[in-house]
Amino acid sequence: MNYHVPVLLHESVEGLNIVPNGTYVDATFGGGGHSSLILKKISKGTLFGFDQDEDAKRNIPDNSQFVFVHHNFRYIKRFLRFYNVSQVDGILADLGVSSHHFDTPERGFSFRFNAALDMRMDCTTQLTARDVVNTYEKHALTTIFREYGELSQAHAIASAIVQERTVAEIVTTEDLKRVCKRFCNPKTESKILSQLFQALRIEVNKEMDVLQDFLQAGLDVLKPGGRFVIITYHSLEDRMVKNFFKTGNIQGQVNKDFFGNSESPFEIISKKIIVPSADELQQNNRARSAKLRIAQKI
């Protein structure tokens, strides 16, 4: 089984507009699919691959031009400085959860398996999904489910969880599914559980805070003319990336110069969102929600 099938592989790597002696960052190394293609295109350059997951180490290529950084990509600026790199020619990030995580039952990312509620990308951190569902107050759970999962029944599901845990701790994915079963029917079950598990995963890994830090750090380390290439999978992160590329801030607040002209640190390269082709979707159904955006630093 592959660790992960890279999504929008050629479109995203082409978006970097690679120069052979450039310095690049694959911020989400994972199975190394994107990195492998980037390395084929740089003859004298350097590629830094970031990944906080211990399992990703098994995919490190035997290539002197590749540097693996075993840390969260929110610290891209700090660790590039550690390697005496102040600016790079391009940054690529695939924000999707790898197939490896979904297909490894004990990681607790998927409702397809009965496993401990974990969902940590970095297994050295403390907070797990089990902690969230058993210790967060009802209003906090409601907010997480509404904002991160876009669940219309967020309050009702949060109330059911709080009620259930007074009887017994919610320990496994099956425990959680049992609590939520009343809010599903055969047609909606998969969608509702996907939204619920997504919300918990985002909270456990603080994904929105991480993305915000990463975007700002990426802007700081990109050279003028450097490319920022990001693949998103849900509306929250896509909106943040879209706003940042358009205005230089995640709120999408347009800043104007003295003459009233809009200011942004980027030129948008992908005027329209790039999505997987029909052929790619046939080969990899998990790419169905992927959206690729490309911007160039001015």
Structure summary:
The chain is of the alpha/beta class. Helices cover 40% and strands 15% of the residues. The protein has a seven-stranded mixed β-sheet with strand order 3-2-1-4-5-9-8, sandwiched between helices. It has a two-stranded antiparallel ribbon with strand order 6-7.
CATH superfamily of the largest domain: Vaccinia Virus protein VP39
Instruction: State the share of residues found in helices, binned by percent.
Output: 25-40%
Q: Which stretches of 5+ consecutive residues score pLDDT under 50?
A: none
What is the chain-wise order of helices and strands?
HEHEEHEHHHHHHHEHEEEHE
Q: What's the total number of strands? A: 9
Estimate the mean pLDDT confidence. Answer: 95
Structural domain tally: 2
* N-to-C CA distance: 42 Å
Describe the overall structure.
With 298 residues, the chain is an alpha/beta fold. The protein has two domains: 9-99 and 207-297, Vaccinia Virus protein VP39 (Rossmann fold), CATH 3.40.50.150; 107-205, DNA polymerase, domain 1 (Orthogonal Bundle). It has twelve helices and nine strands. The chain has helices spanning 9-15, 33-41, 76-82, 99-103, 129-135, 138-149, 154-165, 173-180, 189-205, 207-221, 235-247, 278-283, and strands at residues 23-26, 46-50, 66-69, 88-94, 222-232, 255-256, 262-263, 266-268, 291-297. The strands form two sheets. It has a seven-stranded mixed sheet with strand order 3-2-1-4-5-9-8, with helices on both faces. Strand 1 (23-26), helix 2 (33-41) and strand 2 (46-50) form a beta-alpha-beta unit. Helix 1 (9-15) packs across helix 2 (33-41). It is globular. The N and C termini lie far apart (42 Å). The mean pLDDT is 95.
